[in-house]
Design brief:
The complex is a heterodimer of chains A (888) and B (283).
Chain A lengths: L1 E2 L2 E3 L11 H10 L5 E4 L3 H4 L14 H18 L2 E3 L12 E6 L9 H17 L3 E6 L12 E2 L1 H10 L9 H8 L8 E5 L8 H11 L2 E5 L6 E8 L2 E7 L11 E7 L5 E8 L4 E7 L2 H4 L4 E5 L7 E3 L8 E5 L11 H9 L4 E5 L1 H4 L6 E4 L7 H12 L3 E5 L2 H5 L9 E7 L34 E5 L3 H6 E4 L5 E8 L2 E6 L14 H14 L5 H4 L7 E6 L5 E3 L9 H4 L11 E5 L2 E5 L18 E4 L6 E2 L1 H22 L3 H23 L10 E5 L4 H21 L5 E6 L11 E5 L9 H13 L2 E5 L11 H5 L8 E3 L25 E4 L13 E4 L3 H6 L9 H21 L9 H10 L2
Parallel strand pairs in A: 5-6, 5-8, 8-9, 9-30, 17-18, 17-19, 19-20, 20-25, 32-33, 32-34, 34-35, 35-38
Antiparallel strand pairs in A: 1-2, 2-4, 4-31, 6-7, 10-11, 11-14, 12-13, 12-15, 15-16, 21-22, 23-24, 24-25, 26-27, 26-28, 28-29, 36-37, 37-38
Chain B lengths: L3 H13 L1 H13 L16 E6 L11 H4 L6 E5 L6 E6 L16 H18 L3 E4 L10 H12 L12 E6 L5 H12 L4 E8 L1 H5 L6 E4 L6 E4 L6 H21 L2 E7 L4 H12 L5
Parallel strand pairs in B: 3-4, 3-5, 5-6, 6-9
Antiparallel strand pairs in B: 1-2, 7-8
Helix pairs in contact in B: 1-5, 2-4, 4-5, 4-9, 6-8
The chains are: A alpha/beta (888), B alpha/beta (283).
Chain lengths: 888, 283
């Protein structure tokens, strides 16, 4: 039932309003009861001039107040809600069509979209109608043809719907809609606000079927359309809707992460137009570890860019040919330039390089192998190394047996003065080749190659061929390792290949085998389709691909766009990882334009606002008022009134009173602990810090206030010099906001002691790894005897906590160089809070002395937090004394 | 008596508390300033002392039995005899056995304590004490027996007293003045004098009521509803003062002293005042 913009969910209750007049008279006849007192000198009272009251009638205004209270309660129980859209709601019965854009573009505002859909279902429920739900992002299996559902079933369906990691296809949705007959009484389109090529047909189909209202998000989704890791960092480009009523948010942060989710670095982006780029400056070897780039805070598949090559950065050895006069003409120069962004390169002799650490070795023609080097190389290959060889004059004349194919002596030369053949072009890569999908430039000429003895075996080992079929790259397993031979030289002497970008890509594809060094030989059986390993969901999270995930044929992979048959994620083919991103480089991000016939509303603006609470709350307030009035009428309000006033004032002023307490960390030093959410851990941390605070106050010039628990995700940490973080028994990964907050705190020079509290305990997880996952944690080193921590206040040699000699690491001095060498992060397992909080050390193995030493450690740590490396100068005292003594 | 059973039960309860009451009364009596001294020679029955005979006294005064044992003449002196008895009456009305607040003693109890203290004092002085309408008590256990008499007496109106006795009437005296004039005149008619102890609860004097209040009698059925009780305060106080003034005038005319007391005040001052008013010295 509706009354203007107010809808009642239980209109039956309103009938009770009819009883209000009767209630009025009843109330009128029942005045508030007077206070009864015994009074012996009653005789003296009788006949006073003060009017004696009859007890028959209650005052009119009181009766009106109570009647209003009853009316408010009745209306409240009728469950009213303020729904601006309710006026347009259908009457009883009818069909509602809910069109839900559920591509990844809806993921950032999915909760709102789902709430809007629930609103529509709620409205249909009130009207006792049917609901059809049409999802615009196509499913792999055509299963949603917008069948009629009861509102309850629609709610259940909605609870299961998650955004899909590809874009909506409204043309397809229009086709699916045509399978449902009849008109709809109401069509609610919960749109993602982005245009789609099928919009025209879709809008026409919708408007033909009934009145359409569209719910549009305030800010549309943004996409990362490009990301690459280079030698000087990670670059990324984001695109958004520019202009129109629902543009994407103009600022953001782009972060590069490793495969394990550890943040490598982040950069701010600010959109001026539709696109914005950022370069996250990182050392090349760090950048190469980036496995994905994310638009922070935007949880959608399109806001994630996968860097397939970043899963691992192989360690590659370049076997040095020794002294050469012209480095720019050296073969290795080209290899080095090609691989430097993608691999950790080392030069040296084969024997020194052929260690387990090295995953691939590059052997140019000029390099010689000493016999002992050769033996080492054989062993290394047998363990799974990848040897990449290049041809050259030496190999052409004197082939050894470290080759995938048997070579014919001499080289085939094209286009030289004495040859009649013209230089050869490259042939297209076969579908089963590891190079499949790479584009072959047509300006690469090959002038010389070494030739393989033709055999059936040779044919199967060829990865790439020239246009006339002569092998260009061949490979064969050796032991568990792999030998790959480029039949041309590593430099530009024999071909233009080293000058083209293809050279880099081919080398990277080969190096992908090195990333899997232990089974390089197995992986080289290239071919077949790309099989998914990790797939993105609509929110941009990676999860292992289900067994029935579709594979993608090699020839279409390069041009594939994310879709139901080609879900985005990390694929693999012949050991080579490749990424298929949700958003293409040419992703169209245009605002959805709707005709005037479609009413438009925001996703959040038009929520039906339940008013029951408001009415019942007002009734309760009146009830309280009535109580006070009754007390006042009975003359009992003198004490009670004051108490009620004070209570009310406390109620209203409580937050302020709390904030203005003596615990303002901006006015005094306070130790802080991280509220982990585990009551026992938090209590222990607080008690430990209270004990430490007490000791600091008694012994040092530092007189901190009461310890304060902080929420890493929300609180401003910068006011705390020292934060104690006790690992809870079930550590969880921090939220993004908490990581950013903690990163900032550490960069600003704060000090965090992470206490894993597991000293002496074996097994279990690695709480510190979990707690610090994603954090830009600096490298750590054990705290040594010359660390400033050993002399900041007390001279100490060990740092006992609950355990007598726990391990303690601090940020390495080199990492902390920017802060004058003051470490900002300490990680240990001493369970110090328990030691501090213990009563006289009774429960510690070392008794009171151990507690004392633990407290001294705490004092030192707080001193380090407050004074930095002030006391580190003492490191030099022996040298200074010696120098003083030497002078006359 | 309107509520005999209740009264008996309350009497029993009070009697059970008798040691406490007596203790309280003795403490009060001990703390009384000014001894109730009567230890001097006078017209009494008991032997007081022998003293030398003076010539102007004549031979009739000589105590020959004593003088015969020696050479000197002795006169036998008797102690001054307090021949009067002190009689007590406490109003047994339910409205008198009432307190507005647990913090104050009931008016009845305060009257009982003060009466017992006075009885203790008088009994120590050799006087006879008794409940009005009951037998006078004398001797070592006089106070205890008198206390039981007093508690169980429960005479709604003060009974007639023997001639020339001294009486203490304790009540709130809220009944009309004319009622009391009748009682007092009946007593004064046989030469009885004494004191009226008017005990009031603080609430009865201060009238601390506000707002809509229903006043009802204690042990009665009369009720009065006031819309704004606070407004009646001034007028009630005036009425109370007028009533007291009239009572005092009437009592004085019949040879009685009226003393007022509030239960939230200490008992010692009113005890002293009563002791003075009832002892021979003050008269």
């Amino acid at each position: 039932m509706n009354w203007g913009p107010i809808a009642f969910a239980a209109p039956g209750a309103l009938w009770a309003l009819a009883a209000l007049p009767a209630l009025f008279f009843i109330l009128r006849a029942a005045p508030p009861s007077p206070r009864r007192v015994a009074f012996p000198p009653l005789r003296l009272l009788i006949g006073l001039s003060t009017d004696e009251q009859t007890r028959a009638r209650a005052p009119l205004w009181l009766v009106l107040l109570r009647a209003a209270m009853a009316a408010l309660m009745i209306i409240g129980f009728a469950r009213p809600s303020l729904a601006p859209a309710a006026a347009a709601e259908i009457g009883s019965g009818g069909r509602t069509l809910i069109v839900l854009d559920d591509g990844w573009t809806a993921a950032p505002h999915w909760t709102q979209a789902r709430a809007a859909a629930l609103d529509a279902i709620e409205a249909a429920d009130r009207a006792r109608g049917q609901v059809h739900v049409l999802r615009t992002a196509p499913a792999r299996r055509a299963d949603d043809a917008a069948a009629a559902l009861t509102p309850a079933a629609a709610r259940a369906l909605l609870a299961r719907i998650e955004p899909r990691p590809w874009r909506s296809d409204r043309g397809d949705a229009a086709r699916r809609l045509s399978s449902v007959q009849g008109r709809f009484d109401r069509i609610v389109w919960i749109a993602d606000g982005l245009a789609d090529p099928g919009d025209g047909a879709f809008i026409a189909a919708l408007t033909a079927r009934g009145p359409v209202s569209a719910r549009l998000p305030g800010a549309t989704a943004r996409a990362l359309i490009a990301a690459a890791a280079g030698a000087d960092g990670v670059t990324a480009t984001a695109r958004r809707v520019h202009g129109g009523s629902s543009a994407g948010v103009a600022i953001g942060v782009i972060a590069a992460e490793t495969a394990q989710g550890r943040s490598l670095g982040a950069g701010d982006i600010a959109f001026n137009g539709a696109e914005a780029s950022v370069r996250i400056a990182l050392p090349g070897d760090i950048a190469a570890r980036a496995a994905r780039v994310r638009l922070v805070g935007e949880e959608s598949a399109g806001a994630v860019r996968l860097l397939a090559g970043g899963a691992a950065r192989p360690s590659v050895g370049l076997i040095d040919p020794g002294a050469e006069g012209q480095p720019l003409l050296s073969d290795l120069y080209y290899v080095e330039r090609a691989l430097a962004p993608y691999a950790a390169l080392r030069r040296g002799a084969a024997g020194a390089l052929a260690t387990a650490r090295t995953q691939a070795l590059i052997l140019p023609d000029a390099s010689r192998l000493a016999p002992q080097d050769r033996a080492a190389l054989d062993r290394w290959l047998a363990r799974g190394g990848v040897l990449i060889r290049f041809a050259g004059p030496r190999l052409a004349n004197d082939a050894d047996d470290l080759l995938p194919v048997r070579l014919r002596p001499g080289a085939r030369t094209f286009g030289s003065a004495l040859a009649w053949e013209r230089p050869q072009r490259l042939g297209a890569f076969a579908a089963q080749s590891p190079f499949a999908g790479l584009t072959v430039p047509d300006d690469v000429a090959v002038r010389r190659v070494v030739l393989a003895e033709p055999s059936a075996e040779t044919e199967s080992r060829v990865w790439a061929r020239l246009a006339d079929g002569a092998p260009l790259v061949s490979a064969a397993a050796r032991g568990r390792g792999l030998i790959v031979l480029f039949h041309v030289s590593a430099g530009p002497d024999w071909s233009d290949l080293p000058l083209s970008g293809l050279y880099v890509e081919m080398l990277r594809r080969v190096l992908a085998f090195a990333g899997r060094a232990q089974d390089a030989a197995d992986a080289q059986t290239g071919g077949g389709p790309y099989t998914p390993r990790l797939l993105l969901d609509g929110f941009g999270a990676l999860s292992p691909a289900p067994p029935d995930a579709p594979t993608i044929a090699a020839d279409v992979f390069a041009t594939a766009r994310a879709g139901p048959a080609t879900p985005p994620g990390l694929y693999e083919r012949g050991g080579v990882a490749a990424a298929l991103d949700a958003a293409g480089a040419d992703e169209i991000m245009a605002p959805l334009s709707l005709p005037a016939s479609i009413t438009q509303m925001g996703l959040t603006g038009a929520r039906a606002r339940p008013l029951s609470g408001l009415f019942l709350g007002a009734a309760l307030a009146l009830l309280a008022l009535d109580l006070l009035i009754s007390l006042a009428l009975a003359g009992r309000l003198r004490g009670a009134g004051a108490a009620a006033g004070v209570t009310l004032a406390l109620f209203l002023l409580a937050p302020d009173a709390f904030a203005q307490g003596a615990d303002d960390p901006t006015l005094n030093v306070h130790l802080a602990y991280v509220r982990t959410g585990e009551a026992a851990t938090d209590r222990l941390a607080r008690e430990g810090l209270e004990a430490l605070t007490h000791v600091l106050t008694n012994r040092t010039a530092v007189e901190p206030g009461a310890p304060i628990g902080v929420d890493l995700g929300r609180d401003d940490l910068s006011v705390f010099p020292f934060i104690y973080w006790a690992a809870p028994s079930a550590p969880r990964r921090l939220s993004d906001a908490a990581i950013a907050n903690l990163d900032r705190y550490l960069r600003l020079g704060g000090l965090v002691l992470v206490d894993t509290r597991d000293a002496g305990r074996t097994g279990g997880g690695r709480p510190a790894a979990v707690l610090l996952a994603g954090l830009d944690a600096p490298p750590l080193e054990p705290v040594g005897a010359d660390h400033v921590l050993t002399r900041a206040f007390y001279l100490m040699h060990a740092f006992p906590g609950r355990a007598p000699a726990p391990r303690l690491w601090a940020e390495s001095a080199s990492a902390a160089a920017a802060r004058d060498g003051v470490a900002s992060l300490f990680v240990g397992d001493g369970d110090w809070a328990r030691a501090w909080a213990s009563l006289d050390g009774g429960d510690l193995p070392g008794g009171a002395r151990q507690r004392e030493m633990a407290l001294r450690f705490g004092v030192n740590l707080v001193m380090v937090a407050l004074t930095g490396n002030y006391k580190a100068d003492q490191v030099h005292i022996p040298a200074l004394l010696e120098r003083l003594g030497r002078e006359p | 008596m309107p509520f005999p059973d209740t009264a008996r039960a309350e009497a029993a309860a009070l009697a059970g508390d008798l040691p406490g009451l007596l203790m309280e009364a003795r403490r009060l009596a001990a703390a009384a300033p000014g001894a109730h001294g009567r230890r001097r020679a006078g017209q009494g029955e008991a032997f007081w002392q022998y003293r030398d005979h003076r010539a102007e006294e004549g031979a009739r005064a000589v105590d020959w039995r004593r003088s015969a044992r020696g050479d000197r003449l002795y006169v036998r002196e008797r102690e001054l005899d307090a021949a009067q008895s002190a009689l007590f009456w406490i109003d047994p009305a339910p409205g008198f056995d009432w307190a507005s607040d647990g913090a104050y003693p009931r008016k009845f109890r305060r009257a009982l304590v003060v009466s017992l203290a006075l009885a203790t004092l008088f009994s120590r002085g050799g006087e006879r004490i008794g409940a009005l309408g009951g037998p006078p008590r004398l001797g070592a256990r006089a106070v205890e027996r008198f206390a039981l008499d007093l508690i169980s007496a429960r005479n709604e109106e003060p009974p007639q007293a023997p001639a020339r006795a001294r009486v203490l009437l304790a009540s709130d005296f809220y009944a009309p003045v004319e009622t009391w004039r009748g009682h007092l005149a009946r007593l004064a008619g046989v030469g009885v004098s004494g004191a009226l102890l008017m005990i009031a609860d603080p609430a009865e004097e201060d009238f601390p009521y506000d707002g809509r209040t229903l006043f009802h009698e204690v042990g009665g059925r009369r009720e009065l509803l006031l819309g704004r009780a606070g407004g009646a305060r001034a007028e009630f106080s005036a009425r109370l003062a007028a009533h007291r003034r009239a009572m005092r005038e009437m009592a004085r005319g019949l040879g009685f002293v009226l003393l007022t007391h509030r239960t939230d005040h200490p008992a010692a001052p009113i005890f002293s005042a009563l002791a003075d008013a009832l002892s021979g010295r003050a008269r």
